[in-house]
Amino acid sequence: MLSSIPLVGRLLARGPAPPSARLLTAVAVHHTETDPEKRARTLKYLLKGNHINHSLVQSSSQDLSSASTDSFSYNDVAYLLYAVYMMGGSTEVLNAAYSSSLPSRAEWVDSPAEIARIDWRDFFGQPIYQRAYVDFFEDVLAEHSVAYNWHTVVQQYLLGEGYDESDDVADDDDGTEAIAKRGIFLRHCLLGAAGAPILHLACAFELDSRQLAMEGLALASATYREDVAQLLTDLQGTAIFEANEELKGASLRAIFDAARHDSRFGAYRNSTSSEQPGFKTIGGSFKTSDAQLAFTKYWRAWDLAGTADLTPKLKEAQRVFAGLLVAPGKKQHSSSIATALSVSHGVRVLLPCIPAKYHLCILQQWWLLALAIYIEAGLPAVPEDAVDGAAAESKDWRYVNDKAIISNQPYMMVLHSLRTASQTWTDESDYYLAAAVRFVDDFGSWS
Predict the structure, then answer these.
(1) Which of 125, 300, 393, 407 has the fewest Cβ atoms nearer than 10 Å?
(2) Which domain of life is it from (predicted)?
(3) Phi–psi pair at 54, nearest 5 degrees
């Protein structure tokens, strides 16, 4: 009866709002491309130099044409400069950080062909096409209908918002292949290069950089993993998996504790992380089929889809991974755990910048990466009180900045992630300051 009333009928047809981080506020935007201040200009020029001279991904074999998406390293100069800038680094410090990163960077390699609108999806996951993807997205940016509004390009190619599928069919093409790929956008897999596309796009939004935005889209395209996208689809589906009654409503710490004591992960216990964090697991190469089933169980146990507001979930995730990273007694810190924390920072920045209906998709991808990283890192214990906030009472962020190692990108991203978390979760600001103090005081090397 109620549905026959027009207004009520429309409201009922909409159904409940999808899960979203509805209480998460956007970070302050630094307009570095137009800011006349010297520090901002220096950052802009250094990012441009990196953009012009250095490729987004590189292979140890120097042959990108035969490199798979889990056998390369990615260019992290942008994240180093971003973190140093956001932590207050001077012009001199920015220049020093950039110079320290040059020896490990590779020059661009020409792609075999150009990329056009009708075939932009055809080269997903092929690093050899990274240069062509950068050129393609920059060409889109310059189109009359876009008028250099990089937000429009991100909305269309990352999310599919405002994207006209009819433009994907050439005049002499029956459209069969293009139609088969309709609806596939970069949001379906941002986990290539260990989640680096999420971080790259987050940097673009926080620094208001169209250059970083186009790089982020190109990086997501060149490292796209169809197998991971399919795994996400399967995990999100309605297939019958192992029952999770004992973990229903469990906290992230409780889920990790249960996983630690699951015998099916015995082959991973006390193991070391892979060079590409999480890729051995989320790529499907589980050491046993039982481990694969267990992974599915624990991924589904942290119920994101059944949560109306995802903000507390993100808050919980950042606290847990900060604790894992700086647990007492560590002189060697896990670079993989640092990656999970840094990418969670990227999620925190990105979510308020995109429509709420896509929040769940992004956070589920982070959780997939984070769980895989946790397992590959040897399933470490999650301490109840990893950080004592009172321990940092006599210290502040200036102390943290003074001890920072500006040439170490993962190190600087950890510090910036912790500082942003302290500003985001203000009721726990002392926790993140204490975590940062312990990190800079204890750090010896990465494991």
Answers:
(1) 393
(2) Eukaryota
(3) -125, 135
- Report whether pLDDT(245) > 50: yes
pLDDT band at 392 (very low <50, low <70, confident <90, very high): confident
Other CB atoms within a 10 A radius of the CB of residue 10 amount to 10
Q: H or E element: which one contains 368?
A: helix 359-376
Tokens of 319: 């606290």
Same domain for 175 and 297, yes or no, is no
Contact (CB, 8 A) for 188 and 365 = no
CB neighbour burial string for 163-178, b if at least 16 within 10 angstroms, e if fewer: eeeeebbeeeeeeeeb
Report residue 407 as tokens: 């040439």
- Whole-angstrom distance, CA of residue 181 vs CA of residue 363: 24
The single-letter code of the amino acid at 21 is A
Residues of the domain holding 436: 229-446
Same domain, 287 and 310: yes
Return the C-alpha torsion angle 433, 312, 351, 184, nearest 10.
Answer: 130
Alpha carbon 214 to chain centroid, angstroms: 16
187 and 239 part of one domain = no
User: Within this chain, do residues 278 and 169 fall inside the same structural domain, yes or no?
Assistant: no
- pLDDT, one tens digit per residue, over 190-243 is 998 899 999 999 999 999 999 999 999 999 999 999 988 988 888 877 554 555
Alpha-carbon gap, residue 375 to 291, rounded angstroms: 10
Q: What angle do CA 106, 107, 112 make, to 5 degrees?
A: 115
Q: How far apart are CA 57 and CA 76, in angstroms?
A: 9
Within 10 Å of residue 426's Cβ, how many Cβ atoms?
A: 7
Going by the DSSP 8-state scheme, the letter that residue 445 receives in this structure is E
pLDDT at 342: 98
Separation between Cα atoms, residue 37 and residue 373, nearest integer Å: 39
Q: Which helix (H) or strand (E) holds 74?
A: strand 72-74
pTM, rounded to two decimals: 0.91
pLDDT in tens, 101-157: 988 889 999 999 999 999 999 999 999 999 999 999 999 999 988 999 999 999 999
> Look-up: residue for tokens 């997205």?
137
- How far is it, in rounded angstroms, from Cα 373 to Cα 379? 9
**Helices within 102-225 (DSSP H only):** 130-142, 150-154, 176-180, 192-207, 210-222
Token output for 245: 């009654």
Amino acid, single-letter form, for residue 204: A
